[in-house]
């Protein structure tokens, strides 16, 4: 990622004007999205309820669009494969018990389910609409016999999950849509459900300038902010440099419990 990209403030009026002048064909779609989001925020002041409504709106048009802002099935497939291949190269084994936060319609989850031993995949999401789409994916891929667990959730306290159970926790493009309080809640509780030696991988929209958000949907964080916040809850962070070489504009961190002494 270039320095200019990482210091850009997408919320600033100057950036929005420049972007509109360079991409006039995208202005109508952005205006419609801004109007929709403003209306939904009025109806749902709580962020989880608000973003659930955003997902419902996107999923009604296309489940693939709801999890990747693109209606291209090829791109949906490509992004799922990229997540899967990366995690397998970086420690995931069939014997692992895995929790995927924001599993969506199983863009990557269908590959994880097929790879893991039966019953070892748990997927959670805030959107009932997208979980119905996930069931459709299971049927289409013929994965019913792998007995995956798909659960609707309202928060990231993981209160219904057992202690020290998951070897791998994975969240792709979740924190990029999460305000600070949601990330803090996740960090406060994820350590409890990690098995000894387990790790938590997540992507985020990285900025090296001012932290900001756009339309209360897209949030940009400095790496240091997330590393310091994780440390407050006994989690050590490693920046996954090689993820940066892949065709994806988000960055990735891996968290492990400091008490493990593992470098993952």
UniProtKB/TrEMBL annotation:
Example GO biological process: methylation
InterPro entries linked to this entry:
CFA/CMAS, Methyltransf_12, SAM-dependent_MTases_sf
GO molecular-function terms, A-Z: methyltransferase activity
Instruction: Please report the stretch or stretches of sequence annotated as the Methyltransferase type domain.
Output: 99-200
Q: SUPFAM superfamilies of this UniProt entry? A: S-adenosyl-L-methionine-dependent methyltransferases
Q: Which UniProt keywords apply?
A: Lipid metabolism, Methyltransferase, S-adenosyl-L-methionine, Transferase
A Pfam family (short name) is Methyltransf_12
The cross-references to Gene3D superfamilies, in alphabetical order and at most eight, read: Vaccinia Virus protein VP39 (3.40.50.150)
**Which family is this sequence assigned to?**
Belongs to the CFA/CMAS family.
By what name is this protein known?
Answer: Class I SAM-dependent methyltransferase
Source species, please?
Streptomyces montanus
